[in-house]
TrEMBL record:
UniProt GO MF annotations: carboxyl- or carbamoyltransferase activity; S-adenosyl-L-methionine binding
Keyword Calcium: no
Full protein name: Carboxy-S-adenosyl-L-methionine synthase
The protein's role, per its UniProt record: Catalyzes the conversion of S-adenosyl-L-methionine (SAM) to carboxy-S-adenosyl-L-methionine (Cx-SAM).
Phylogenetic lineage: Bacteria, Pseudomonadati, Pseudomonadota, Gammaproteobacteria, Pseudomonadales
HAMAP family, per the entry: Cx_SAM_synthase (MF_01589)
Family membership: Belongs to the class I-like SAM-binding methyltransferase superfamily. Cx-SAM synthase family.
Superkingdom of the source species: Bacteria
Broad EC category: transferase
Organism listed in the record: Entomomonas moraniae
Methyltransferase domain ranges (all copies): 60-162
Family annotation (SUPFAM superfamilies): S-adenosyl-L-methionine-dependent methyltransferases
Alphabetic keyword roster: S-adenosyl-L-methionine, Transferase
Amino acid sequence: MKESDNIFAKPLEKVPDFVFNEDVVNVFPDMIKRSVPGYPTIVENIGVIAAQYAQPNSLVYDLGCSLGAVTQALRRHIKQPNCQILAVDNSAPMVKRCQEYLTAQDAMYQELTPTQVVEADIITMPWQRASVVTMNFTLQFISPEQRLAVLTAIHQHLDPQGVLLLSEKLRFDDEKEQQTLNELHLAFKRANGYSELEIAQKRTAIENVMKIDTFAIHQERLLKAGFSKVTLWFQCLNFASMIALP
Ligand SMILES: C[S@@+](CC[C@H](N)C(=O)[O-])C[C@H]1O[C@@H](n2cnc3c(N)ncnc32)[C@H](O)[C@@H]1O
Ligand SMILES: O=C(O)C(=O)C[C@]1(C(=O)O)C=C[C@@H](O)C=C1
């Protein structure tokens, strides 16, 4: 049963750093839909875009898969023969629940792309060649000093006809733009039923563990990692999704 997110609804003596634990897993579908403007559109169209780049007989990564929303979209849209999806997350409760959801999807639909869910750390795991890599609001939780190495490894293992699909919360160098889009994001959260207390406590919880960059920094880092072209295909308020070509 999908629960509604009220993790930060009561005043906390000390707000702990945000962790993708069992409590978050239980409310995650509600939390991310009410916190990330455009999330359903991004997830579904990652499936559409990935299907244009997936190569036959290749691996597809969903990095930081959480409960597998993107993995399920990939399974619905990718039709190339003999593709395999590797859904990766370093949260044990996320991996356990993701496997349960994918098993349920298997029971409802025939001939979905075979998928394996693994608990692993993107920073240290061994890489395999792939034609599609998705990182949907995951890189922002990896420490900034480790992001280039991760993206370089992804590029080195990416099929020349493949693609990296990267979604991130953005910050903006222009002060007025930052203030406007940040305020509109808070309005989005209020419109989705979050109280001022929940918004404030969630901000405190993520401020040390979720470090966001500008689009320019993402673009520069991706080009440095070896990607040839970075295209912004979607933005809703301060949340965006990019196509990075090898
Ligand atoms: C905002 S959630 C991603 C949302 C998900 N991709 C989706 O579209 O529904 C971030 C996820 O990244 C995972 N994560 C964070 N750091 C990681 C790491 N170093 N290795 C693997 N997974 C990581 C977290 O456990 C969490 O499930
Ligand atoms: O920026 C915020 O206020 C958020 O809650 C963002 C965000 C995210 O982008 O991943 C943070 C944690 C949860 O995974 C859901 C949403």
